[in-house]
Design a protein that fits this description.
Elements lengths: L9 E3 L6 E2 L2 H8 L2 E4 L6 E4 L4 E7 L6 E11 L2 E10 L2 E14 L2 E6 L7 E5 L12 E3 L4 H11 L1
Length: 153
């Protein structure tokens, strides 16, 4: 879910020299990787076949949910649309992010009309707050989802 809390280093605005990432570059950031959120509960695994599995929190409530769906890349934009479920029920949700780069730094922002400050996905000079540090190869989400599903019956 897009409201999952995560710390991020804020860039505010893009540099004047920034250009959009290509679809190939955006896909390489996610495909076959788990994007872990700040807390250990939550994350998203992006399979090569265009599906994802995830754990998230409902924005404003903090309730855990699990989801599955599709992820797509169109130019600089990566979108996830899926069905999210917890004890209270289920519903669909779409979240999209746009990406740009300048001088060795990759920036990220919300799409879907939520644009705010840009943040650093990966800075040219590595920083522990970079979001890229939470993107790891492989699927570490499925075991968390299975445990959560078992806990809610």
């Amino acid at each position: 879910m897009g409201g999952a809390p995560f710390a991020r280093a804020i860039a505010k605005d893009l540099p004047a020299k920034a250009v959009k990432l290509s679809a190939t570059e955006v896909r390489a950031l996610y495909e076959g990787n788990t994007w872990n959120q700040k807390d250990d509960c939550c994350g998203f695994y992006f399979a090569s076949d265009g599906t994802f599995i995830g754990m998230g929190r409902i924005p404003g409530k903090g309730d855990l949910v699990h989801g599955t769906g599709k992820w797509t890349v169109d130019a600089d934009k990566m979108c996830m649309v899926g069905t999210w479920t917890n004890k209270a029920g289920s519903g669909t949700h779409e979240e999209c992010f746009i990406h740009a780069k300048a001088e060795g730094t990759i920036y990220k922002n919300w799409a879907n009309g939520k644009k705010g400050d840009w943040w650093f996905f990966r800075q040219a000079k590595p920083n522990p707050a970079d979001e890229a540090n939470r993107v790891k190869p492989g699927d570490s989400v499925t075991p968390r989802v299975n445990a959560f599903k078992a806990s809610i019956g």
